[in-house]
Design brief:
The protein is an alpha+beta fold and 296 residues long. It has helices at residues 4-12, 21-35, 92-104, 110-194, 197-223, 228-241, 251-266, 269-277, 279-294; strands at 43-51, 57-64, 76-81, 84-87.
Length: 296
Amino acid sequence: MLKKLTLAILITIPAMTHANNTSLIQNAKQSIRESIKDPRSAQFQHIRVVKNLRGETAVCGEVNAKNAFGGYVGFTPFMYVDGGSYLASGDKDYQEDFYYVYILSGCMGVSDEKEFRDQLYYEQIQQEEQIRQEQEAQIRKEQEEQARKEREEEAERIKQITAQNLKEIEEKNKLDRLTILKKDREFYQRKKLTATDIERREYNKQVKTFCNFLYDYYTNRIQHGFSHEDAFLTVAAAYNNMGLNSVYDSLDAVEITLQDGFERIQNNKEDYNKFVKDGAFFRGWMKGTCIVQRKI
């Protein structure tokens, strides 16, 4: 970035294009003398009036003068532009700024000026390209962030819908299960009141078969890792081969009975602790409870 010196010089260069060269040189020398500690000791060399590639005029040269200790410091480049003189001295930033304008004003010759202008143009193009790429990268980043937020919002929306659907299904299944269990209990009550001794014995035999079926089904699921359907079909095939008939013959009936058993255990702390410690307890408890609850 150009310093104030650079800007001031570049702005004022065009004002000198019509000045007389001799007058410009004299004015440049006088301005330099006024800016050094020992004006009378000033020595000049290589003084010239130049025009840069843009037709702008400047006075360039070198000056040597005594310092505060009375010794000459050596020839130092200077530049005179529109009544202001500038020496190539001072801190690093100032010197970089000085030579920046020194070259652009034509003091280093046309060849150096052209090369320097080409370099500046190339750097400007690179800087503009870098800015463009950074802007595009920022836009992509914002777009990706927006897309990510939209995906998260959509995922959350689907999650909420899924949770709601599952809740509705669970409530419906619970209602269906309770309805079936209620009908089962009503059926048992009617059987107790209406069944003959022969019918009671036959029915209780079917109840025992069903509860054994339940036990074997759960064992196949848990111990052998069968799926619900595979466990049911395996046990059903075995029972059919033995000619055994149970009260119910559907997977839903078996699962509903198991679920009811789980809930009963969960509501009994002592039984639940036994179930946690020993899975076999549930199988035995389930079969026994199943028979007690269903026999008439």
